[in-house]
Amino acid sequence: MSAQAGAETDLASRWLGGSVVAASDESFGDKENLLTPGAAVFEPGRYGSRGEIVDGWETRRRRSPGHDWVIVRLGAPGVITTINVDTSFFTGNYPEHCAVHACGQEGYPSPEELTGRAVDWAEIVPRSPLRGNERNLFSVVDPRRFTHVRLCAYPDGGVARLRVHGLAVPDPRGVDELTVDLISQAWGGQVVASSDDFYTAASMLNRPGRARSMGEGWETRRRRDAGHDFVVFQLAFAGQVRRLIVDTSHFRYNASESVAVYRSAGRQVPPAGSPSWQPLLERTRLQPDTRHEFAVSHAGPVSAIRLDAFPDGGLSRLRVIGSIDPAARRAAGYRWFNALPASQAMTVLVDAGFSAAAAGEVIGSRPMREGWLAASGSDSPSQIRAGASRAALATILEGSPSR
Predict the structure, then answer these.
(1) Which of 64, 269, 336, 366 has its CA 20 to 30 A from that of 3?
(2) Taking the model in full, what pTM does it have?
């Protein structure tokens, strides 16, 4: 069994919508190569008009003081835990050192705005030495939620790939009335455990978008026993599941023969073999290379899903379509707001109609425990006792005005 408790997501992944916003220079290798989903490749002796063709971001040789940099917008903003600066195939032309900074911004700032003085960049990886032709891993301990990262390369050189691993912390504003994919990585859904990741990982199943080949789905080895494979997911939000989409696209001769799906409502995800799992979809036959949709119903919110695949084989995607439970929305609101950098939290509150002074009082009350607004009563910051301000904060934190 492959245990993946606390599994992390590449928050900068193209699959989640990550993009490279700007770079100081990209003379030899395009900045967009940094986020190419696959591993870097290199064929010696291939030259173009800019020199040897490289699969990475490479700047010109710097002949003046300073350093190069590149800014990446995270596809899924969140709490960053590890940075991977991959210098594969860069042996005599990689940067000597790097540093990484991060910020939290509202909306979709332009390159000019992100490189302006108003942005509050936080150093999450101090200037550190790099090794050539290696995956250079750096741990990050900052607990705040970020939307952008800036990689600084000292003084110049090439980096093949940049991976920003962490835990997605979705912005819950506006999701109250939506029907969403409750296990999507874009919202923070995670694979907790799987029986087998022999050919490709089970984490392919809850990626956004459709698989373009078998290599972008989950495929297990051929079973020679009487068992079956499984995957356990923790939902991004607990909610009411209304439809399951089980997609076997591209698996023509090796799709799973059938699947069954189980649900759990507890705060902790139970082990795969626990008797606490309740049926959500009885064992159902599948067709190869087909997108299946199944209507389901149940009582109470669902917080975790177990997919059983019989007996083995491949699936390209699983979607768990449903509405978010109000209690889960409230918990997500507090988690999100507590994790915002102070400058972004200020922008959120001022945009909602708070004065700078009132916003400062609220930000100074963090971290807020879930239900803080209702529990604080007359002890809440003086400037949010008024009905309008209190209702605005309730909408931000809990999804509906306080009553």
Answers:
(1) 336
(2) 0.91
Burial of residue 179 (number of CB atoms within 10 Å: 0-12, 13-18, 19+) = middle
Nearest 5°: the CA angle 373, 235, 231 is 160
Exposed (0-12), middle (13-18) or buried (19+): which is 392, by Cβ within 10 Å? buried
Residues 196-225 pLDDT 10s: 999 999 999 999 999 999 999 999 999 999
Give the Cβ contact number of residue 198 at 10 Å: 13
Taking the alpha carbons of 28, 33, 39, 45 in that order, is the dihedral positive or negative? negative
> Where does residue 65 rank: exposed (0-12), middle (13-18), buried (19+ CB within 10 A)?
exposed
pLDDT above 90: percentage of residues in the chain: 84
Residue 220 · residue 307 · CB < 8 Å: no
Tell me the sheet residues that pair with 372: none
Residues 90 and 156 sit within 8 Å (Cβ to Cβ): no
Nearest Cα neighbor of 93 from 61, 125, 69 is: 61
Q: Give residue 104's Cα distance to chain centre.
A: 15
pLDDT of residue 290: 98
